[in-house]
Amino acid sequence: MASWTFSNIVKDDSLTVIVGISLASAIAFSTYYLSFVAKVPNIHCGNKKLKSLLLSRVPCLSRRYWVTPWCIEPRLHTILSMPVFHTKEPISYEREILVLHDGGEVALDWKHKCLTHSKGDPILILLPGLTGDSQTFYVRKLVQAVSEAGWCCVVFQNRGLAGVRLKTPRTYCAANFEDFKEVLDHVVKKHPESPLAALGVSLGGLILGNYLCVAGENTPLTTAVIISAPWDVFISSESLQKPWMNRALNQHLAKALCNMYLRSCSSYDP
């Protein structure tokens, strides 16, 4: 009887410890989540009128953003979402090949019926990330949302991507927006009556931002949006060298760029 009682006491004490640790962990996580994760977005805007307009027209900017509690790491968001979005049906595009001034070629994928039937509807030029194209999962989600809002959409894919081989010994980088400028001029010429906007993601955002810094007000764009572009590319580059997740991402991107070159290296004599 004494042995049975002692055993139960030990079990009760173990259960108490487990409950105590679980409760303390829940309190600690909740405190961290409410203090550092679920926050009101920071609005950095030098134009006070624009800031007031944004806050009045986009009410979610004044509310806390409740990040998914069981997945607060932003890189894990991308990893876990990929299997879900990759199962979706691909979007139907009409492809246009644009020959650039130096003989290089880029693919412009127009959302179905937008290439020849815009008729003055607003057009969004979408610039994907480093190795992205029109079927990349986040691009498809953006194109779908833009189309549902009544906009035409064209995805500008950099040289060597989306099945288009390199025609010249030149690729692309964030510091050069010449290809985007040619694409923009081409869209303006093809649809002079349509209001134009541009949206760049990651590397596409850097290219778009670089263009806007130089063009200033001398641009046919009425609106521009930059998503997930580094504030400081040097710090971002250093971050990509850190283990383990960042380095794995860096290796994936480097491999994709090498594969792009290998697919195209037989297309011209170096």
Automatic annotation (TrEMBL):
This is AB hydrolase-1 domain-containing protein. Residues 122-251 form the AB hydrolase-1 domain. Belongs to the AB hydrolase superfamily. AB hydrolase 4 family. Keywords: Membrane, Transmembrane, Transmembrane helix. It comes from Darwinula stevensoni. The keyword Membrane applies. GO terms for biological process: medium-chain fatty acid biosynthetic process; medium-chain fatty acid catabolic process. The keyword Membrane applies. GO terms for molecular function: acetylesterase activity; monoacylglycerol lipase activity.
